[in-house]
C-alpha cells in the first residue's frame, strides 16, 4: 500500500510540475506583462549589455553561435586574406566593417577596440540602447529585448554591403539579402535548459550567412558562328545583384573560350575576367555580349565558366558549353 501511495504522490507531483511549466510557458509567450518587473530584474544578467565576447552569447544561444563560427563574419578580423589585404590591419578604411561597434541600418558603423578577434559578431548587430534588439517581441529574462523589423530588411546589410545593396535595389527584386543568405527554419532561439523550454519555437535565421553557390542554371549562355566572328552572350538569370559581387575583396568569374578546327586542333583561346572591382561582373537579367574573331576554319567553340570567391584561389567549375558551326 505504501508503494502505491508513493507512486500516486509522484504522479501528482509530476502533474503539478507539468501544469506549472505549462502555466509559465503560457504567461511568457502569451501574456508576459503579468510577470512583475521586480521579479524579472532579479534574474537579469547585466554583463550581457556591457559588450561581452561572442562566446558569452553561446551560454544560451549555442546553435546560433556555432553557426556564426562557420561564417566569414566570424573571421572578418583574423582571416589570412583580410590580414594580407589590410596590410596587417593597418588600413583604417577597412576597420568600420571588419570590427564594427554598433550597426544601424544604412549607416556606416564606427570601428571598435574591444574583442576584435570576434570580427562581426552578435553584439555589434544586436546590442543597442541597453537592450538586445532582434526581429521578435519576446520576453527574455537574462536581458531586455526590443523588436525591430529592420532585421528582416536588406537595408540592415547595406551598412557594410553598400554596393551590393545598390545593385539589389536596381533589380526591383522582392527577395532580400536574408532570403538567400540567412534562410530561416523552425527552431528554438535558446538551447540552455530550462530557458529553452520557456519559449515557443520560431523561425530562426541561419547565422552562418552561407554564400549562394553559382550554378549552371543561374547563367544563360547563347552563342553562334558568323562568317568571320563568333557572337557570345551571357545573362545572369537568378541572382538579384551582380555576379560575382563584393564591396571589397576580389571574387571573380573566369570565361574561357577556345576554338578548334575539324581535327580538334586548338586555333585560338580567349579569357575574360568578370569581377566587381573591374565593373565587368554580370548584372541581373541584362545580357552581356562578347565577340571573337573566328575564321572559316573554326569548326567548334568550347566555353568554360569558373568562379573563385574572394577568400580562395580555387577555381570552381560553373558551366561548360559547346558550340558547332
Give a short summary of the structure:
With 325 residues, the chain is of the alpha+beta class. 26% of the residues lie in helices and 23% in strands.
Distance between the termini: 95 Å
Beta-strand segment tally:
12
Q: Give the topology string: H per helix, E per strand.
A: HHHHHHHEEEHHHEHEEEEEEEE
Strand content: 15-25%
**What's the helix count?**
11
Mind explaining what this structure looks like?
With 325 residues, the chain is of the alpha+beta class. Helices cover 26% and strands 23% of the residues. It contains 11 helices and 12 strands. It has helices at 2-30, 37-42, 54-57, 62-69, 80-85, 95-98, 122-126, 154-157, 162-171, 177-181, 195-198; strands at 127-128, 131-134, 145-147, 184-187, 202-205, 219-225, 229-236, 252-260, 266-274, 288-293, 300-308, 316-324. It has a 4-stranded antiparallel beta sheet, with no helix packed on it. It has a 3-stranded mixed beta sheet with strand order 1-2-3. The longest helix is centred in the first third of the chain and has 29 residues, at 2-30. It is elongated, with a radius of gyration of 27 Å. The N and C termini lie far apart (95 Å). The model has no long low-confidence stretch (mean pLDDT 90).
